[in-house]
Amino acid sequence: MSAPEEFDVIVVGGGPAGSTAATLIADQGHRVVLLEKERFPRYQIGESLLPATVHGVCRLLGADEEMRAAGFTTKRGGSFRWGTAPDPWNFLFALSPALSGPTSYAYQVDRMTFDDILLRNAARHGVDVREESSVLEAVTGGGRVTGVVYSDPSGARRELAAAHVVDASGSTGRLHAAAGGTRHYSDFFQNLAVFGYFAGGGRMPEPDAGNILCAAFDEGWLWYIPLRDDLTSVGAVLNRDQAPRIQADREGTLRASIQRCEIVRDLLGDTERITQGTYGSVRVRRDYSYANTRFWAPGITLIGDAACFIDPVFSTGVHLATYSGLLAARSLNSVLAGDLSEERAFDEFEGRYRREYAVFYEFLAAFYDMRQREETYFWKARKVTNMQTDDMQAFATLVAGASSAETALVGADSLAHRFSSSSAELTGAVERTGAARTDSGERMTELFRAPVVADVMSEMNRIQQRGVTGPATAETPLLDGGLVPSADGRRWAEPDAAPA
Ligand code: FAD
């Protein structure tokens, strides 16, 4: 092999995490190459977005206009046939005190289009995007990662060198091992998903027609995502011991799950499942709830699914992917500019990222626990009071990470109590909202008052506010002794150095 080409940063993977990080680093004038194994547009699951991605990160990326022009379905929130209420209840973004206003919506996206928009946008911002380029291994030297070896579209092995490698290669990538940690799989979210696409189907009554619907049934729950008038994504989340049944008959398992869940069965009626083209197969995903014990090591950073994912129930995957892309870009921009040491910049990255992962983990566990009166195997196994001690301890270690200052979240002894009380708060808040489907605003704001929900919304609100209003207000550090975003939101600053 000839001498390696040199870059400031190599990003591996062109999903939302990789495109976000690459764009925000290239914007600062650094030389960034992004290696993507597939040729886009390519299929991916994860179609229901949250407002912070749309109005916060996508605005920072300069991709918001193109998103609007793509004609994605507007999502005002989620409708849930979940908990004790017999009818669906809503979680509407507009009713969050921080999110209400013209940007209190997100989109349901077909990921081929969404990911393609972000990848092409990265190229327009100066990223050297190389598709059909699969990274084979990390190159190391002097105690750090110094580059990668990849196979180019002709199959030739090539080497690249850089000051830093960002692993955004999703759940299937193997590069994360170069950071030296291990991948811990959750004992609580031991689920798998079987999903397919239907040529239309009914919609919830307006104004909720664009909402994601999550509907629980005895053996699990179903998502129902209206992507277009003629395209609906439907997936069943089941216990992982259903794997042999799914392996024997994917389609039969999906159809049987739909039959067990009245509201989805009725919405689909006799709508045909799509059987041709990209949306034509019934797919399965398993082993997706995990976190790595290290999110960075000298010369390498893990973001998006390469670092962690929890569960599909509240559409958090793309948020965590784009959020971590933004955090990594701030850290790398600060290091490359000589503002901060690698350690200081990446401790901030890891501390914030673990904190966001932890608040969502707790929220999602509380969400599952709302089915606590269910006595079926699936729901009994997901009562927070049944969480295994091992899982608690592993979770505490993960959240603490190597460097996070977020001790308040970790206090290992009190974790079980903390999860149980979050669950009780959430259940209580939802019960007080009643089963109302319509905007009974007063009652619904109960949900946003519940501390576990406020926690989950807080950093998302900040990201969104920045996207909408720009660098108007200085932030206080999120972590003890931590940093704050610079005025333009693209680097870190010491709190006393940030402009007021
Ligand atoms: P990806 O989108 O997976 O992108 C990684 C990229 O890296 C890919 O393009 C891949 O081709 C490339 N790559 C891999 N290996 C290499 C290599 N060696 N070299 C070069 N390139 C490589 N999230 C939501 O927000 N909403 C949802 O409704 C939702 N539903 C979900 C349902 C299920 C069943 C599951 C499992 C997940 C769901 N998610 C959802 C999560 C979501 O799919 C992910 O969190 C999100 O796609 C992560 O983005 P990413 O950029 O980290 O990774």
From TrEMBL:
Residues 465-500 are annotated as: Disordered. Gene3D superfamilies: 3.30.9.100, FAD/NAD(P)-binding domain (3.50.50.60). Keywords: Monooxygenase, Oxidoreductase. The keyword Oxidoreductase applies. InterPro entries: FAD/NAD-bd_sf, Flavin-dep_Halogenase_NPB, Flavin_halogenase. Belongs to the flavin-dependent halogenase family. Bacterial tryptophan halogenase subfamily. This is Tryptophan 7-halogenase.
